[in-house]
Fold each of these.
Amino acid sequence: NAGVTQTPKFQVLKTGQSMTLQCAQDMNHNSMYWYRQDPGMGLRLIYYSASEGTTDKGEVPNGYNVSRLNKREFSLRLESAAPSQTSVYFCASRGRGRKNSPLHFGNGTRLTVT
Amino acid sequence: DQQVKQNSPSLSVQEGRISILNCDYTNSMFDYFLWYKKYPAEGPTFLISISSIKDKNEDGRFTVFLNKSAKHLSLHIVPSQPGDSAVYFCAAAYNFNKFYFGSGTKLNVKP
């Protein structure tokens, strides 16, 4: 039972390069999320998708784009990477319903932009 | 401006004693609160949650308390064990859509 799978685990980019972070979940969850974690800042929401076909901005969307490819997959794209985007990126998913519906996280992608 | 705050970056507790982690929030619309535990190089894992209609929720050694008037959330771990050493994040949400996280508290449980 894989849960939420993120690829790659590590990535080094040069300023101005682009890349896509991949996320897939096998729990048939409706909602998916992208967070970044920075020291002293906790987890900050970049974008989320409440259901297939919809996406919305979070707290820190600038410099990112997302695609909800289907119910399972939610990708995060950096078009022109900047050193300020050096961070650990976490994808999460959540099932429908009000009770006992926490976020389930992947193990993260550690991105360094030089 | 952070809507969820954890003002203690770290906490050290002796094994067997109680660990109390605190969290404050500013948005009175929040109606669902959660605690997550995170080990290095892993994603956060869900620990316990509470809805705004309750003031306490227990799960084994973990109890979450919610004081809505003070906009304050706490997690009690009794008894604390060395394996509880991790970073703990509190989170809050409204309409079960956007989840906002605190900056985390690193708990060290000494044997």
Amino acid sequence: QKEVEQNSGPLSVPEGAIASLNCTYSDRGSQSFFWYRQYSGKSPELIMFIYSNGDKEDGRFTAQLNKASQYVSLLIRDSQPSDSATYLCAVNLIQGAQKLVFGQGTRLTINP
Amino acid sequence: GAVVSQHPSWVICKSGTSVKIECRSLDFQATTMFWYRQFPKQSLMLMATSNEGSKATYEQGVEKDKFLINHASLTLSTLTVTSAHPEDSSFYICSAEAGNTDTQYFGPGTRLTVL
């Protein structure tokens, strides 16, 4: 089992709809969870981080964390073509390990 | 805030030469920086973790003598690819951790092409 798993996609969503991206992780002791966006040929850009169970909202983005089920998700409301990118889930699997483990990424395409 | 720069943004070199890539945190101090490599259509691969003032910690399978890392200050880490070969051609990306938050901010990356 991979430490951090994401559906590689591609995920196609019509413009204006909600895009839902999911990520599961293996270590129940994980404390920190991050979502990055990566456009083709560019480096990752931090979108959100979440530490506590529940929802965290920032503009059109909502991160959801469920530690009991070991999953974290990212919702993008009112999807725009500019949201088309690869979304990387990252987890600090072991507290104090000083490194994040990244999922393979989900490629999202927003169709006009 | 939390801006990370890399230099150069791209480099083309002949096989056998060495290439140095700089990573700087511009508006914060980074005790820890990370170096990643990404091949086309693949995910990020962590190469090493660099702590200011100490030796870098390399991931399994990464040759420490080939990829030299120096983290001499809280705002600068360098990666030197020694005796580069065509198979080293890749997108090299650094990141810096802000404080002890586990949050990593990425530089824009350096595209290395070895002829």
Amino acid sequence: DGGITQSPKYLFRKEGQNVTLSCEQNLNHDAMYWYRQDPGQGLRLIYYSQIVNDFQKGDIAEGYSVSREKKESFPLTVTSAQKNPTAFYLCASSIQGALFEKLFFGSGTQLSVL
Amino acid sequence: GDSVTQMEGPVTLSEEACLTINCTYTATGYPSLFWYVQYPGEGLQLLLKATKADDKGSNKGFEATYRKETTSFHLEKGSVQVSDSAVYFCALSEGTSGSRLTFGEGTQLTVNP
């Protein structure tokens, strides 16, 4: 079955540590996205990529970094510069260029600070 | 900029009750409108969508009508089930790909037997 896989499901970060969240899709989608979900605030876009080797900042990119070396993979690094990293992180993908195409979401990673 | 406002939650209903979750939006153009549902511990799934004024999206007994005159896209269901307990997100997109979404805050729905 095609889909999006996020790992790990739970992740803990120590002070000053960088951590990387994995996102892999086998849907052959061109576009991939990272959202941050905080209680009562909906989803906010961190970064998105419409094609391999290219990505753009979303609304809250500070303290995060991404790479898109392969079509299937879009890892997100939460750096030590992100002072409030505790949140639920969702990865999504879509067919780029298709009108009104929906997003397919992974099951998320809960990041907490130790 | 674009924005989406949902009714505040949480919403608690008894099984077979009627559901309405209000959603209004602000957009400069003619957006597409979506409702996504998030079950506990999972990502979001598209529930329904409408791409132009007066369109009605429907799925799994849920409906929402794109009302341009009131800039609204309220989610309705005539008889809810315990399995409908989830968080519901209203969203809009003005991009041609429909992929750059602006989400509302989400509304937690709990249905009791």
